[in-house]
Amino acid sequence: MILKLSIILPLLLLIFSSIVSGLEWNDCGQPDRAVKINKIDYFSSNVIIMDGRALRGEVDFDIIRPLGSDVRITISLKRIISFWGYETRIPIPCFGMCSQSLCELIDQENKVTRDFSAASGGPIKCPLLPRNYSARMSYIVNIHKLNWIPSAMRYLFSGDIESTTYVTEGDREIGCLYLRSYVELE
User: Fold this and answer.
1) What distance in Å separates the CA atoms of residue 122 and residue 68, rounded to the nearest whole number?
2) Shortest CA distance to 12 belongs to which of 155, 134, 165?
3) How far apart, in whole angstroms, are the C-alpha atoms of residue 87 and residue 57?
4) pLDDT tens digits, residue range 28-65?
5) pLDDT tier, 16 (very low <50, low <70, confident <90, very high otherwise)
6) Does residue 98 contact residue 91 with C-beta atoms inside 8 Å?
7) What is the CATH number of the domain that holds 98?
């Protein structure tokens, strides 16, 4: 269960991210990318992860060509600390993995992947076929599943968070998403 949550928590942060003044994101992919991010949106002024509270968001992206078993998703998370206008970034370590095969992620059969499949118009299976994927989602957090995160790490997960998600095929980057958000983990 720790391995599943270690990739799901950062993905939730990606899908349901915002800062007080709004969501800051961009598609940082190369011009010849296979994954094109069209929209990331949120339905609240900030992200508060607490027991029983729903996280709501919207994502829209295009898959340009089929994506198979050699595609990986890798997430880098950093906590941003500001001092008198100077920002420093502290890497947030992974619990188990920050990188996973796209097909393994899709095949995990967790609530997020099932809900995304339903909201985007049908089952999502590997290989991912070229088309538009768009979904509005709501995810109820069961905070007791996050009790394995030490309190010092909860502090790192709370605050101004920067994440970069890379989609790679072999050694080639085929997609990239940058997010900066304010997150509270209670």
Assistant:
1) 18
2) 165
3) 28
4) 999 999 999 999 877 665 565 655 566 677 889 999 99
5) very low
6) no
7) 2.70.220.10
Specify whether the CB–CB gap between 75 and 98 falls below 8 A.
yes
Domains: count for the chain: 1
pLDDT in tens, 123-181: 788 888 899 988 887 766 665 666 666 666 666 677 888 889 999 999 999 999 998 88
pTM listed for this prediction: 0.77
Which among 60, 92, 57, 83 is positioned nearest to 162, based on CA atoms?
A: 92
- Alpha-carbon distances of 135 from 12, 21, 47, 149, 154, rounded to whole Å: 14, 23, 18, 29, 28
* Residue range(s) defining the domain that contains residue 101: 2-185
